[in-house]
Structures are given as C-alpha cells and as structure tokens.
Amino acid sequence: MQSNRKNAVAVLLSAGALLSAAPVATLAQDIPVGHLADFSGPTADVGRPYGQGVADAIAYINRHGGVGGKKLAAETTDYSYKAPQAIAAYKSWSGRVVAIQGWGTADTEALIGFVTNDKLPYYSASYAATLTDPVGGSKADRPAPYNFFYGPSYSDYARGMVQWAADDWTKKGGKGKPKYIHMGANHPYPNSPKAAAEEYAKELGFEVLTPIQYALAPGDFTPQCLTLKQSGANYAYLGNTSGSNVAVLKACQTVGVQVQFLGNVWGMDENAMKAAGSAASNVVYPVRTSATWTDAKAPRMAMMREISKMSDASGTEYRASHYLAGVCSTLYMKESMEWAMANGGVTGENIRKGMYVRQNWVPKGAEGVCVPSTWTAQDHRSVLKFDLYQTDVKAGDGSVGDLIAKGAIQMKRIATIELPRKKEWLGW
Amino acid sequence: MDGTLLFQLVLSGLIVGALYGVVAMCFVLIYKASQVVNFAQGEFMLIGAWACWWLLVKFQLPFVAAFLVTLAFMMLFGLILQFVVLKPLIGEPIISVIMVTIGLSIFFQALMKWLFGVSVQPFPPIFAAPDMNVLGLQIRTVYAMSTLISIGIMAAFAWFFKFSRMGLAMRATAFNQQVAQSLGISVRKVFALAWGISAMVSALAGVVVGVVNGVSPALSFFGIKVFPAVILGGLDSIIGAVVGGLVIGVLENVAHYADSQWLHWGNLHEIAPFYVLILILMVRPYGLFGTRDIERV
Amino acid sequence: MAGTVALRPCGDFRTTYGGDQTVFPTRLSLAFCFLGIAALCFAPFVFSKYVLSLLIQIGYLGIAALGLNILVGFTGQISIGHAVFFGFGAFASAYFSNKLNVPVFFAIPLAGVATTAVGLLFGVPAARLKGLYLAIATLAAQFILEDFFARASWFTGGVAGTAAKSFSIFGIEMSGDQRYFYVVLAYVVILYLAATNLMRTRDGRALVALRDHYLSAEMMGINLTKYRTMSFGVSAFYAGIGGALYGHYLGFVSVEGFGIFFSIQFLAMVIIGGLGSVMGTLMGTVFMVLLPEAMGGLAKLLSGSYIDRLLSLDEGVVFLREMAIGAVIVLFLIFEPDGLAHRWRQIRAYWKLYPFSH
User: Fold this and answer.
1) Which of A188, A340, C263, C309 is most buried per CB count within 10 Å?
2) How far apart are the first and last CA of chain A?
C-alpha cells in the first residue's frame, strides 16, 4: 500500500476504535447483578451449563415480574478462569451491583476480603470450605460473611465419599487397611478438599498415599495412571473438572488400573460420561440436586422446563446437572432480594440478612429439585446431606439425550450421605 | 526402585517420543528449507486433528477417506500460508519472522476454539480392538499404528533428502539460497513444498494424538514441547529431531517417575523438558547433531 | 527520538553537543508534552471510572513494554519471557509490603531492584546466546519461572496467589482509580524520561551499537557481555516497576496472570508501536489495551443482529479478541513492520509538507 493510503487507513481505524470502545449504561430502575462465567477457559465444559443456568434463570425471573417489579440487569463476563480478569471485572462492578453470581475457587477466595469490605453478597459456584465460616475462628484463613453457595462444600463431599468408601470396603470384605489417594491439579479448586479428606480418611482407618498430580487441561495421563496402578490404591479421588477427568479415566482404562474412582461434583456429569464412554463406568460421584434432567418429564420439573425454554425454545436439549445447580443458586438470590425489598431496600447487607431468614429453604417452584438449605449467621454450610450416584456407561453414538434414552448412560443412586454438623469441620 | 514401572514408563515414553520426533522433523524441515522458526507447529497439528474429526463426525466418512482428505487439505493449507504470509517476510530480521509465526499460532488457536469449542471431543472409534499388549504394557492400538507410521515417515524423509532430486534441492537451498537459485533450483517451489509437507505430516501427528486423547485446544501444546526436542537434536538436523523427540518423551516419563518416588514436587513431568532445554543451551547450543556456527572476526 | 531515525530536515543545524542531544527537537514539541501531562492531571475529574482504569492499565503496561523495547528495540535481543519479570515485580512488591512490612511507597522501587537482580541473573547466560537461541531460552525461562511462582508458596502464596496492600503516602490512602492514577502518571513520566535519557548517554549508544553490528562494536571496545547483561537488567527493572504498580492496583497477585500469552502481548505492543522508539512504545500499548475493548464494543453493537447469531458472538467474543490480537500482529508485520511510530511520523510529515510529498 502506498504511504498516503496507509496514513488514511490508520487515522480512520483509530477513530473507529476509540468510538466503539464506549461502555453501555444500565437503566435506573433495574437491579444490577454481576455474573462471572467461564465459557472459554479450562473449566468451560462445566462452566457453560452452569452459566447458562444462571442466565436462563435471570431471564425467566425478568419475564415473570422480576424482583418486586424491577428487572435484574445481569452483566455477564467470561473471564476464562483467569483470576486477574475476575478481579478486574469485580473492580468495575463494586459500587454498582448489589450481588454477584461468581464461579471459580481461585477468584472467589481472592475476593473474600473485597466482598466483605464492600458488603456484596457473592454466590459462588466454588464450594470451597474456606467460604463457609462467616465469623472466623475456624481453620479458614479469614471470615467470609458475604460468601454463599448452594450445596455442600467440597470438603464435605469428599468426607462423605470417604465415609461411603469405608463402608464399601467392609461390605466387599476387604482385608487390612484400604488405600486412599488424592488425584488433582495443583490449583486451589482441586486442592480445596485435599487436607480435610485425607485427615478424615486416616481417621476412618485408610492408608493415605502420596497424591498424584494431573493438569486441569486434558492431555496424555498414561504416566499418572501407571503410577496409580503401581501404588495399589483402592479408592482414588479425582479432583479436577470433567474435561481432564475424561482423559485420565480413558488412560487408566487402557493401562488396566483396578481402582474405585470417586468423582467430585464438577468432575463427572452426563457430558463426561458420553465423552469417556465405558471408561467412565462405575465412578461414584455426588449430585447436589434432588433431581437430574432424566426426570425432566416429572411434574416437579415444570418450572425447570420453563427456565430451560429461555434459551432452548424447542425444549429438547438435555441439561447437565450443573445447569440445575446454577438455577437453584439464582433462585435463592432472587428470594433473598425479595425479602430485602420488603425490609429496607435491595442492598447488599439486606440481601445477606435475607439469606438467614428461612430454615430448610426451597425456592418456590423448585420443590423436589433444589435441596432444602439453611444458612445461619454463624455457619454458611447450608446443606450436609447429599446423594451419591454410580455411573453405568456403555460406549455409543448420539447425543446425550439419545444415549440416556437408549440406556447406554445410566446413573444409579447408591447412597444418601448425611454428615454431622461438627464445629471442628467448619471452614476447612 | 520399581523396575517394571520404570520399564513401562520408558516404553510409553518412547511411543509418545516418536510422535514428538515426527512433529520435530516437520519443524526442522521448515527451518532448514526457509530459515523460519515455526511457532505455529502445534496449531498445524490442531487444525489437522479438528479437520479430520469434523469430516468423520459431520459427513460420516470412513476413516481412511477422511484421513486422506485431511492430508490433502493440510498440504494446500501449508502452501497457501507460505504464499500469503511468509513471502512478504523474506529478508526481514528474525524477530519479525518469529513474531509472525507467533501471531499465526494465536490466531489459529483462537479460530479453532471459536469454530469447535473448548471441550474435548472424542474421535469415533476406528479400530476394532482399542488396546493391544506390547511387552507387558497395554497400549492403544492407535499408538502402535502411530509408531509404525512415525518410523515409516522418518525413513521416507531420510530417503527423500538423500536420494530424491527435490530433497537435494531443499538441502541446497537450506545451505545457501543464492547459490541454489543460480544453479536453477526454484527456491519458491522449495519453500512451498517444505511448508506443505510440514503441515501435512504435522496433521498426521495431530490426528494420532486426537484419536488417543480426543481433540481439544490443549493439543497445540505439542508445538511448545517441540522446542526442547529440536534444540537437543540440533535445529538443522532431521536425525537430531527424531533423537531429540525420543529423548524428550522418555525424559518426561522418567522425570515423572523420579518425582513420584523421591522428589514429590508434583509436576516435574511437565517442566523437566524446559530445564533440559536451558541446560543444553548453556552447554551445547547446537545440539547433538546440529552444525556449529563458527564466527571468525 | 534520539537514537534510531534522527534524520533532520536540511537547514536545521545544531551548533552545540547539548543542542544536538535534546530530547525534544523543537520548543513546540516540549510545550505539547507539558500540556499533555497537565491535561492528564485533570483526567480523573473528567473521565469515568472505566476510562480511568484503561488509562492506568496503559500506564503500568507501558512501563513494562518500554523495558521490553529497550531490550528488543534498542539492544536487538529477543525475550519471550517478559511476563514473568512483570509477575516477579508484582509478587516481590506484595511480599515486601506484606511479609517485611515495607511501606508500599518503597516496596515498589524495591521490587524493581529485586527484579533487576533476577534479570541480571538471566542476562549472564543470555549474553552467550544470539537470535533464535536466545528466544527459545527466554521461552523456557517463561515456563520455568511460571512453575516457580506456582510452587514457591512462601513467596507467592502458591497457586492461590497473594493479596497486595493499597498504596499510601504519608497516611493518605491512594486506593481508588482516581488517586492511583496520579501515582501511575508520576511513574510513567519519570521512567519514560529516564529511558529517553538513557538512549543519549554513552551506555545507550553502546546498546544501539550492539544491535546494529555487534562484531564491529566489540572491535571498538564495547564489552558485549556487560552491555547485554545490563540491557536485561534495565529491562527487568522496568518490568518489575510495572508489575508492582499492577499488583497494588488490582490488590491481588496470582500466577495465572503471567502466562505465555501475556509475554506475547508485550512483544506485540513493542512491535506494533515500533521497535527502537520510546514514543512508539506508548502508542503500541494504547493500541493493545484498546483493541480488546474495541472488539467488545463491536460485539455489543452487533449483539442481537444477524451477524451475532451467525458468528455466535456472545460466547465467541473472547476468541474473537484473541484472533484479533493474532491477526493484528501478522498484519502489522506484513504491512507496517516499523510500527505505529513510523506511521505517525509519516502522517506528521504529510501534514508538514502538504502539498509536497517530500
């Protein structure tokens, strides 16, 4: 290009860029809500259904009268699971929004101090136990009075599965000490329940082996599986999200590892079962809702079907378990806001107070789906009872809905765990 | 000291190392022919894997047909890329060339994520028997196939460069472009062919990795692992690339073994090749088989 | 500026050494510079929080990019590991202010010095490598240091990251974008002037000689190892200061923010701005900071329309941003290899010489 033409192009492009970089404003009567999601990062495989659930629930709420007549104005930011980007998004929200639907462990834990200072209720999709102590004094680094999440904490899930494993060992007639091993990436999210689970396992008589690391991004995990096989472990906890779990399950199936895999709540879902095929069979994992989408036709799922239609008008898409969790999280936030509106206005502090008002709380329309939860000002562990499912997967082609209809993917409920509300287990 | 585990790890490392060697060979091919460091080698693999997957899943072609179509597409892709992007950069300083390939790698990575998403997509099953037993280690059939193919490709490359006219022409161009041109060798054709072959063979490696682990954006990290392999072997030596790839593959697994038995750092498996890279650059930058670049003032 | 393209139009004579080495070639350009800085001082009262945060980002990224330009543009070395020096500065500053209770005002320069030490450490072996090998060595350093950040929990808080205190002078808290803007502005002005000054000293000329023809430079008596190492050190200092400012702005430092993509963004800033030009670095930084915002704005403009559905923009914006960065790098290198600084000079020359073309 000639120099003059290049000059003109440069000037025009800069003008256009500067003009289009202006931000968009929200209406005064909306309730601004921040929404962090991972649609494109290492946890996107589970972030997408959860984020869709939150977005659809907000759209449904707005379609049906909003919160006391005011619409929720959600600002969704895809931060690709990078904590600095989440912090930057938070900085642009603080002072403007009244609540935030968050996502990952690393950024939620980083923001504890900020949300406490700014009095912003933060509903995370991270269930790290460090977020459950509102007053301080426990093993958590600092109090988190403004952090809420729906469902048990990772540590409680892990403890529940260890408890099941101990029962399973005796039922199978195992001799001697069973061996427990933690597998996960070196990252706050898989690390979150590690110490608590290992200590509880020791308490119940397990021999705890050296943890094995495998990355959050899928890859070739043959060396890790060979090491796992050689270690002789009986029960292996998989700490990562479903993407890398699929890779490790397949590698371990090839190598011929005989171990009972225990998945975490983000580590196994219907999409992973389809991707891994028979390698994902016999994995035990927790589910945090009383229903899965296999019960989609049941009457108690009526509101969930309506919410799903917000982004899928045909109503045929199969929703993973994380979708329902995202919806439940948003519904709890909405009902808190309604209480706040009737009791002094929708501010962060009032929304927080609204979370403590009900016991064994289930949002309207979600009975039989969202589990009864109780938050108190001293204890943010809302749920201590959950179901354990076991997968039964045969390889097959087709969408997730088809495979479930054909029976190639089956999830069987094998146990309901109820943990005691021990004070020394708070916060870690 | 667990002998069987170590042996199995070494064997598994050799199999993965053969793949590293194939990708390293493609990298060295481009470097030798056109003096360009291709930071986008991993993305070639990724594009090939996604293209093959798409053909298999969308059009339900049989595997062999999809594979051949992918290879043809990648050859064309390499030719076009060379023509559009690299030709304007002949003669520019090396930082520009490096940055262009880095820019291309970012562009293609993001393009693949946009077109195909970020989750792992498994390949439809290709072989009747997914696993087979080799020397006591269960490996995927496709890995065995890939080892055979890798050896075949290495032999083909060796024959190509030593005995065929085009291969000799490439070596001449790599040695001195101007003299080669004056001897009547079409440097343009040499460049184009080098990029085309490199893209094609990378795609082959990409398809193999995709069949084993599923296709996902993480596949392009192979392109970064290639650097320790080619530095170890020597930037302008095809044999060196192969040896380097095998060594790095075994090294990763041996490091994992040492880590799990004694060190307990956790991720030595991923980071050991880079420590070795620094070591080689300090001690012997030209690698095992590279040519020494002697400066006389 | 002084150094690369110091061609003056004929008739413009300088009669003293001092006059020859001025930073600002004319009185008018000096006046513009003062006016610009004064105008920026009023920015916090005029602009919204969002624009201020962009300006602050341009500030600390510009400082680090200038360090990289000194290394790549003025000394001719390559570094694909700049992000980890940036990160080291951030972690060091957080460490000094949290664990050693150094006031943040002093922790930031100290972090710069600490990063210089690390930079010199890498400079010593790097002095032996040239061109491509240096690039690959810095790439390896990037991954190794990233791994170090993830595992050295005593220093960095491991994978969970560490909180950084807010900046305060004499008890006045400088948190909040409006106040922090002045801190960043002060650092940018001081460090940019320092870099411009460096280039007209003896050491600066040695660096440029190293880039242009190192064999001749060695023959003239310039110690290659000393200056190559020094170049890494200075570059690391700038990166460290930039990182420290970043850490205290965000209030939180985590290893995830300093990956290879960030290093490439720094290189893009320098190349798009123009290698070997101090003004160009700032322009390149502005470009790279505004590019994702422009893409986001474009996506919002198109949201709901046919193109949005066709390209699935709501989910794909992140990928389109990355694609734009990659495409921009390639296009600039094909069509404008000398960067925005060169284009700016051409535009200025066009206006000055109109209707003549030269």
Assistant:
1) A340
2) 63
